[in-house]
Design brief:
Blueprint lengths: L5 H8 L10 E7 L2 E7 L5 H16 L6 E7 L26 E8 L7 H14 L4 E5 L7 H4 L18 E2 L2 E5 L14 H13 L6 E7 L6 H9 L4 E6 L3 H16 L4 E12 L6 E2 L6 H9 L3 E7 L1 H9 L6 H17 L14
Parallel strand pairs: 2-3, 4-8, 4-9, 5-7, 5-8, 9-10, 10-12
Antiparallel strand pairs: 1-2, 6-7, 10-11
The structure holds adenosine-5'-diphosphate.
Adenosine-5'-diphosphate binds next to helix 3, strand 10, strand 12 and helix 9.
């Protein structure tokens, strides 16, 4: 019996029609789990789907293999599964969301701090303030806005080949999650992540908006950096929980935005404290107030705090709006603070600056 190695995987793929060894990359083996990528021309995405399946089946036959995931990938072009039309290579690129007054990124140093939840609730708050609002879920490693906004259908394209963002709770919504299945693993490499998000900004008919909130992927790596460098952001807000680890990661986020000259509009402390829904007792589960101190130390505004509360999770799981007046008010206050710090004029794209 041959051991499960990258060679045996490649060997088993020799039998697959339409696949050459050069197309296979990134073979990762973890116990009995095998993951690999098949590089393709995005125009061939539909044709290659059966090849991808056959490749998975071929690898499954190797002794010791428990699960196989093959993904189709493409470099510097649209992710194949999005099935969007690429702009012709030589044609001038469409401007990024030309009628959107302000694009504001919601970022976090690490995952799980509630960045997507805060982005969604801020979008609701801006809408409630009477602003024409859009929400772009750029967290393509874990697109959660389709679930939080309760909308999952694939969007349509219009006569100009632009993607029409669906309305969810009165917001224009766009998510990579519309183009990949929520449960399917997605492997995007750096350049692809960037190209895909650029496409969601350029090729989506956002129309006139006062504000477009971007839910960024968590962290401060290359994907986030290239994104914030190439989008005309009016500013960014950073979400953190009060723990030290989260705060030191948030500080990294702050430095990333400073490096590329994107104004940090402030820090929001999420899961700040807990109020017992039965007795009203308030408890600081994580050392509450850390984000405010960090904001003061870094010289950026502290925008406010959101308590840890089951209503927040329940609403986001159900794809509904929040049913808790006090927390809604907290989000509205934060949104109002953000709005007052935004310049009156539309932010013009700043020239790309080397990182
Ligand atoms: P991130 O985008 O930072 O990875 P999410 O927004 O997906 O984090 O939130 C992670 C989980 O925590 C979700 O289940 C969400 O409903 C929950 N959550 C976020 N903020 C709160 C809060 N203030 N109170 C209760 N649950 C929260």
């Amino acid at each position: 019996m041959r051991a499960l190695t990258a060679e045996t995987v490649l060997d088993s793929l020799k039998s697959v029609n339409g696949l050459t060894p050069e197309m296979v990359s990134g073979i990762a083996i973890d116990g009995g789990k095998v993951v690999f990528a098949i590089e393709i021309d995005p125009a061939q995405a539909k044709k290659m789907e059966p090849v991808r399946k056959t490749a998975e089946d071929a690898v499954k036959k190797i002794d010791g293999v428990k699960s196989v995931t093959a993904v189709l990938t493409a470099e510097r072009k649209a992710p194949p599964k999005m099935q969007m039309k690429q702009a012709p290579q030589k044609a001038p690129q469409r401007p990024v969301a030309p009628q959107v007054k302000h694009i504001v990124a919601v970022a976090s140093g690490k995952g799980g701090v509630g960045k997507s939840t805060v982005a969604a609730n801020l979008a609701h708050a801006f809408k409630a303030m009477g602003k024409a609002t859009g929400l772009l879920d750029a967290d393509i490693y874990g697109a959660s806005q389709p679930r939080m906004m309760g909308y999952r259908e694939k969007p349509q394209t219009n006569a100009e080949d632009m993607i029409v963002p669906p309305m969810a709770h009165g917001l224009k919504l766009m998510s990579m999650g519309f183009f990949v299945e929520e449960t399917a693993p997605v492997i995007w490499r750096g350049p692809m992540v960037h190209a895909a998000i650029q496409q969601l900004l350029r090729d989506v008919d956002w129309g006139e908006l006062d504000i477009l909130i971007i839910d960024l992927p968590p962290g401060t790596g290359d994907a986030q950096l290239s994104l914030v460098q190439n989008v005309p952001l009016s500013g960014a807000v950073i979400v953190s929980t009060p723990q030290d680890v989260a705060l030191s990661e948030a500080t990294k986020g702050l430095l990333m935005f400073k490096k590329v000259n994107v104004p940090v509009l402030g820090i929001i402390e999420n899961m700040s404290y807990h109020v017992c829904s039965n007795c009203g007792h308030r408890e600081d589960i994580f050392s509450h107030g850390g984000a405010q101190q960090a904001a003061e130390k870094m010289g950026v505004p502290f925008l406010g705090e959101i308590p840890l509360n089951a209503d927040v999770r329940i609403a986001s799981d159900a794809g509904a709006t929040l049913k808790n007046a006090a927390i809604e008010e907290a989000f509205k206050n934060i949104a109002a603070r953000i709005w007052t710090t935004l310049p009156a004029e539309k932010t013009t794209p700043r020239p790309p600056k080397a990182a």
